[in-house]
Each structure stands twice: as structure tokens, then as C-alpha cells.
Amino acid sequence: MADHRLGFESFDEETDPVELDVAGELPEWLSGTLYRNGPGDFEVGDRDLTHWFDGFALLRRFRFDDGIEYSSRFLESDAYRAAREGELRYPEFGTNPDWSFLGRLRGLLGGARTDNASLTVRHRDGEHRAVTETAREVAFDPVDLSTLGTHDGSVEGTGTLAHDHYDFHQEEWVGLGIDYGRDSGYVLYHDPDDGPAETVAHVERDEPAYMHSFALTDHYAVLTEHPFTTSPRRLLDSRPFAESFRWYPERDTRFLVVDRREGEVVAEPTVPPFFTFHHVDAFERGDELFVDLVAFEDHSVVESLSLANLRSRAPEVPDGELRRYRIDLEAGEAEGRTLFEEDIEFPTTNYAEANLHPYRFCYGVGSEAGSFNDRLHKVDVEHGTNEEWREAELHPGEPLFVPRPDAEEEDDGVLISVALDVEEERSCVLVLDAAGFEEIARAYLPHALPFDFHGTFYADGEEPTPSMT
């Protein structure tokens, strides 16, 4: 019998649209398309890649309309085409090409940034795009998933965060870039629907921290600067990008509160050190900000996502806990408390309702020690309770919330997750009623997909706005 390791094997299939057999009953109102993104191939010639984040992007499309239609296709990025010829042309997160010093210098200055856009998808400037942690976004056809071309980005910075925010009231994207060059620091920008992207602030840092996401409120962007930092000098040596960062346990984690309009840093409170990949939500109450995120005790979770560890029978991955940090802008102080102490990751919400506002429900995946993503959580952050869904031999991915049209309750909708059934040795689409947190439909794919990262759902008849950060 297979186990979770099946989800970390290289995949070499592409699937034209096929109707899946659905067991159970899909809601009549569920009509739209779910796009998922994640690694599909972990090899370049005879060489294995090192980290889960390194695999070459495989787009997955699930069309909901009186059934489920599935298709998948590799993103034909420059990086992927070179890899098919046996060449690792660009540095990935945990694996480097065999470069000379001049090659590494060119990479640091932005001339050799990967377009292996395997983290998530977004809709911007009228296009569906795959994105990663560089400014190179890759457009794709929303129907057949064919690659349309690479965009090199319109804001300064050698790196960007794949997790940006959409402000539904202001009708603009807000994103964060990281500059690892001569003027290292964080680049906050906004990209309104009716105009070009513009830089809001450049916060200089000699040793910028690794950031995967950030928080946004009505008036502020909150950058969580944990003590996992690098420098241009360290990026020039032969180690991969992820290994150029160092953890400094004697330093605090700092919240950089940046005014979204003026670009000024208005507060820099610190708390004991922790690491985070994913923010959940943030909101304001008077002179106080509240920032919810998944916190780890240190950076070791980055190393734990190496393929060597994840392909072991009992992978050792640190637990993340859901925390809320209260930032007092007037006093310049911050303090945190635990909202949910069991392991949780890939957190999602009813994004259109929750983003920038107080919310009640957070959904995510969880694991027990020695396992990998073996359950789903629904955390009620107002009442401190949790509901759990799990099934033996099933490994669910990120649960995306899709609201029922005209819903009056925050959890009136469904959750969609793509899971690996190791007993069947196939992946399946799970649809759960979000309010009752019970499975209502399931559809099996013809094969087992590698574990993905993130995605979004675009409802029919609506503007394509994100369903998560």
C-alpha cells in the first residue's frame, strides 16, 4: 500500500478535460472554476531537486457546472523548458545551478530570476497568471491552461511575495516586493484596477528577512519581520537561496506597520521571536491592530520541507499554531495569544468577507506527529472551538471557501480541497459543507497528483477576484 510519499513523486502526465464521476451531491449554485498550482516534477535530467518549493509548476483546473471537469498542464516557463533539456537554468528556492561567481552576481541583480511560477494563481490586467516569489508572472489560458507568456513585473525589487492582497473596497491589489540588491529592503506597492502599479514605500534593511506573506488593514500594511535574514553578500556564495538565510534566536520578531497611503513606518513593536509563512487576517479597532497568523517557534519548518524529509515514512515537520497579535499603535507595543494550539497550516477564510475585517472562522490542514496533512480544521476564533474532519489514508490539501450566493452567515458555503487517497492511489476532489463541516461530494481523478500549494476559485458571472490571500 502506498503512503503520503506518493504525493512527492515526480509526475509526467498532462490531462485534457475529462468529466469526473461525482459521488454525493454538488450544490446547484456551485458554478465556476477552481485553479490549483503546485509542483509537478522534481527532476532535472539525472538530478533531483532539493526542496518541495523547487518543483516545476503543474496547473490543475476543476470546472464546476452540474459536475466536475478536470484538466492539468505543466506551465511552459523558461525554467521548465530548460529543465526538459536537462539544464537547471535558474536558482530555485533550495537548489542552485552550477554557477560561477559572475552567474550568482547576475542572479542577485535580477538578471536570472526564475519564472517557475508554482505557488498560486491570480487574475490581473485581464489575464490569469501563475506566480511565485519572483516578479516574473506567467500568463496562461484559463480554458486549456496553455502558457501565453512571461511578465517581468512592473515594480522594483528582485523578489516578490506570491501572497498579496486585494482590497475589495478600494478595488486595488496591495503587494510586497523584496529588494536584495544595493538598496536592500521591502517594497510596498499598490496596483489599482483603473491604473498602473505604484510604489508606496521602500523600507531599507541591510539584512532583509525572508517573507512569504504580510497583513493588511484599512490604513496599514503590517510586515512581520522575523529574525530569519540574509544579506546581498551571503546571496553571492554558492549556497541555495533558502540556505543563505540565518536564524538569530537572540533577536525579536518585529512588526513594521506601514501607512498604506503615506508610505511611512508608523510603529515597530517587537515580540519574542517566531517564524511564519502565512497570515490569516488583520483588522483595526481604534488605535489597535489585530494580526492573525500561523506561528512556528523558529525557522526549522523551512528545512523540514526538504524533499528528503517529506519523502521519509514519518516526516518531522514542526507544528504551527494559530496566534493573534494585538498592536497598540499609540504605545508602540505588541502582545500575542494563542487562538488554536493544535497544528494548522494553509489557513483560509471567507476572504471577500473577512479580509480587513474581524472574522469568525479559519479553515486549514493539520497533521499529527509523523504524518503529513491528515485532517482539516474549522476554527471558531470567537469561541475558541474547533471542528475536525479526517479520514484514514486521506491527505487533504488547502481548503478553499466558496460562499453561497446571497449568503447571510460567514460559513454559508462549501470548502473545496484536493486530497490524496493513498489506499486508492488516486487524488480526489472533496466538497464539504462549510457550516456543518461534513462531506457532501467527492470525485476521483484518474491518477495521483503531487501535493500542491495554493489556488483560487472564480465564480461564474462575477469579476475574477481572489478567494484567498
TrEMBL record:
Keyword presence, Cell division: no
InterPro entries in UniProt: Carotenoid_Oase
Keyword hit for Lipid metabolism: no
Keyword field: Iron, Metal-binding, Oxidoreductase
Cofactor(s), by name: Fe(2+)
Top-level division of the source organism's lineage: Archaea
Pfam families: RPE65
Molecular function in Gene Ontology: metal ion binding; oxidoreductase activity
Protein family per UniProt: Belongs to the carotenoid oxygenase family.
The name this protein goes by in its record: Carotenoid oxygenase family protein
Species: Halalkalicoccus tibetensis
